[in-house]
Fold this sequence. Notes:
Hypothetical Protein Ychn, Chain: A, 6 helices, 5 strands
Amino acid sequence: MTEKRKRLALIASKGTLDMAYPPLILATSAVAMDMEAGIFFTMYGLNIIDKRRYETLAVAPLANPALPVQMPNMIGVLPGMGPLATKMMKSWFDRANVPSIPEFLQMALDGDVRLIGCKMTMDVMGVAEDDLIDGVEIGGSATYLDYAMDADIQLFV
């Protein structure tokens, strides 16, 4: 009798650069550990798999107390601070040899991570199926719940 593989079910709900990494890192790590993995992209998390947006995800410096370089909110409001914070974060990832979001997405697809785009969010935000990267499945909350029902680990990111 074959043992059932462990399964990871993730929900990606945020579409900033710093929040795109956790679900992709966890899913690709899971498949490297011989687990099944699936990510349900909903709300702004849909930006991670939107081929018009995924290469330009940004960091929000305003009211982000987790930024390693502390700055008053007043400075975060200044024009150009968002792109500066994004460039800074991308340089940290580059220096640490961390794959980019497009590279992580390809790794996920190559590892058979199930990528599910939320149909309701797509309808609400006017995102067409053609706007998403190739290999994404379209489904609703029932699709995710059916997958997550048999998951050993479920996380909302």
